[in-house]
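pasting input
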Amino acid sequence: MKNIFTLIAAMILGSCVFSQDLNYARKVINDLAGEAMHGRGYVKNGDLEAAKYINREFETNKLSAFKGAYMQEYSFGINTFPYKLTVIVDGNELKPGTEFLVSCASPSLKGTYELIWLLNDSVFDPEKDIRFEGLSVSDKFIVTDKYHKNLKKDNYFGSKGVIFLKDDDANLWWHVSNGHDVLDFVALDIRRSKLPPGTEHISLDIKNKYIEDHKTNNVAAYVQGIVQPDTFIVFTAHYDHLGMMGQQAYFPGANDNASGTAMVMDLARHYAHSNPQPWYSMVFITLSGEETGLNGSEYFAENPLFPLENVKALINLDMVGTGSDGITLVNGKVFMDDYERLVQLNEKGAYLKKVKIRGESCNSDHCPFYEAGVKAFFIYTMGKEHQEYHTVDDKPEVLPLTEYNDVFKLLLDFVASYEPGFTIE
Ligand SMILES: [Zn+2]
């Protein structure tokens, strides 16, 4: 009888360990993507709130700090919109985030402006475009329904602003990587149904605030290895997101990248309490400034808190909230042995549908480390069960975390596979 009870107790305990991981991740994602963190950007110091939260969790789990502190401060310039944003079409005030977006490089602008409509247009060259002959557009807005990268960047027509119509079923997605400079024209994305064809004017009151020297922090901690403490396995994830646009619209960033941050914090907690201690020193770096263009990882790679040449492998996690279609390994084609081992481990554990291979791509925080000579990977999950990307609807309550536990277990196996003498039976 006693043995059966022990067995049942062990089973309950065992299942608790796994469900607890997911519960912990859910809690962290709810907290990081909650309204109180203001989208973890540059309005209301959302990124600092998030950094303090991660700092507290590292402290609670008694992780070690490099040079006496988890926080690594640095700064950059960034344009923000902390004030009320007003866009009025035919007396109808549009809602920021769901009905319009203002490009992060936009300046302040107030007034009513005439609209020039250029629909279904593919020829975009003011020299060739006869519609512009003798027409000054410097006090007008151009409306187009095709995305023109150069028009958004340079506005070569020299208009007061540009409006890109977005179909009602397309994601209204914002980005801030262009926010280091303020341009001399306003660019807006507007839902097509909110700006009916033929509308003659638009009224705006947009006020920007450029922060010259926004102070922000990477938050890093480690668990000392027991056999080879001077060799490191590193997990990274960016915790920052887009912040707020105006006073109401905030971008929760549950998948991007509260999910990866939660997994790194969960791994940190796991290794901090693991018995025996890990073979190598395990490092956990949550980075800021990713959305502004990999600023945090660039800073860390240039100012490392431990010797990067002693890194066995670095695994960056960015958007791991799905998984029904498996995971992708960026840099898998560069480090084929590691990729093949990961595939074998996945098969042995029957974890994920597939491990897709990719080559180099400078699309997340692994990149500056890779460029500094580190064996760095980037893992993200795949699946159509959550498609909110950079929208106000990337919320915790709709994030499925389909394969969270399996990705977590695969990562533990992958870490163990770097120990000398490891074999897959
Ligand atoms: Zn992002």
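fyi The chain has two domains: 22-79+212-416, 85-206.
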